[in-house]
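Re: your question from the hallway

Yes, I did run it. Sequences:
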Amino acid sequence: MTAQAEPTVADLGEDELIASFVPLLPRGRTTLVPTGDDAAVIAAPDGRFCVSTDVLVEGHHFRLAWGTGADVGWRAAMQNLADIAAMGAEPTSMVVSMVLPPPTPVSWLHDFCRGLSEACGPLGVGVDGGDLSAGEQLVVAVTVHGDLAGRDPVLRSGARPGDVVAHSGLLGRAAAGHALLASGRRGGSDETLIRDFLRPRPALSAGPAAARAGATAMMDVSDGLLRDAGRLARRSGAILTLDPPAASVPDAVAALAGVAARLETDPTMWILGGGEDHGMLATFPAGTALPEGFTVLGRVAAASAEHPAGTVLVGDAVPAVRPGWDHFRS
Amino acid sequence: MTAQAEPTVADLGEDELIASFVPLLPRGRTTLVPTGDDAAVIAAPDGRFCVSTDVLVEGHHFRLAWGTGADVGWRAAMQNLADIAAMGAEPTSMVVSMVLPPPTPVSWLHDFCRGLSEACGPLGVGVDGGDLSAGEQLVVAVTVHGDLAGRDPVLRSGARPGDVVAHSGLLGRAAAGHALLASGRRGGSDETLIRDFLRPRPALSAGPAAARAGATAMMDVSDGLLRDAGRLARRSGAILTLDPPAASVPDAVAALAGVAARLETDPTMWILGGGEDHGMLATFPAGTALPEGFTVLGRVAAASAEHPAGTVLVGDAVPAVRPGWDHFRS
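Structure:
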């Protein structure tokens, strides 16, 4: 008996490969014509739909050695679902294109599909189409759609001086998990941080809840709190003043302190500079009863000659934190 | 004075890069919230939308040396727009993700955006979002949306024995253009074929026209006539019998004969086996007045023990033509 090599995507024809994983993908509650035709047909009961797209590249956004195919599928789905939630919408449907190096095991691809399904299925979100190509580097491109259920979308541009800045979700934990994986110095008690990096769990319902509560602006934090807050401020023609994390999110700082000390860094850097937790950053008129799960981080203020639109102050200083992800420079 | 090197995408930050090309992209007639927020918002007047996605990889689907960035942008758009037309829908909106090697010139990216715009702008289709990442290999992932204007989608599965098989658009010309580029043996009079490969011009209006005329099944020909016809037949539980190209499309055969002779191949192979012209392959009940531009290629017949569902006969034989593109095997 000879040992059988694990089949790779190059061992199957394109049609056979597709047929092997389509049954692993969920059909959504708005799916009218599922994957398999020239296009899928999706219900848009609102008469509008939201659409967002993200691309993940092996070696840049994930490393095969760091987790399973299901982890990659989960994260690809969740970071896109968070973009829909950040408009105040409910996600309905996604399509997924992939570039696969020919030696990719079929089992990895199937595991990836299971991760997509674990993320989307419970939400009633369909995986309603996709495309595959061979290539040198593994790439995942997800496009996600959502329904506004009759509400106005919550844009980045609506924050007004006097509004409260609030956040729902984790801060700094994905960055800490990433730092542990990158350092190779992970230990037993670090696994929850690594899981928060590999399997982000944004509070997706916080997006529509913020919209219902009257949020004036919202976005998801994907590239780091300071960098994303600066984008929201710039689009709103305002500045944001954030309280120091030790005051606004002391539990988050405390939970990262041990690992930060071991990696010889400051947990505040992860909280202010790290991305990929995909929490919801939103602004509300002063006095709004914030939806469950939101924590006040600061206030919106008027731009000035000293502090032009887009400035983010921490305490009363411009923080000396390196910015979050820049995919062409980092 | 030193010569200035052409700026690459690595020379600009991600935000600066995006700001540099967004003004080149068209806003669509259904765009409610354009690119720049967490998601775009698109009108879906029909209460449904069609969605399809395709990925193009440098070295597999295009080569930088073969054409301009605008050619790549045009083709990426058109092959997606054709998928929407093949449902009988009108395209409305697309989002485009890209993986760019850091040495990619900014001017190439801008040229790519102009190609997208040339394809989408005149149709009122918006380029309403996207994402960029660095990576080793240039990848373009397009997701396109369309509106059915109250019609039923025309699926691949509706062909019935007795229906007429018809096609609108070019056949074999993109394959001939590709063969010329791959052979390096192009000459002056071959430029129209190369242009048909680099800049496919599917008759997008033929899709909705076929739907209005009562097409029972439809798809766009992207992977080769025989392979795609086989998919339509299989999904319909039927077989297709096509007339020999010399009888059904004699002008197309004649127009390719010279180049085929020079490259020592048979033009019929390009017509039956070549893909990427993105014409509309549709079936209609016998006696239907075909929309302008459609040519009869054959008939739908019942499957049998000898010829199971999915069989495509040319004349009365199963043709010995190598199948079209298989991205993991070709």
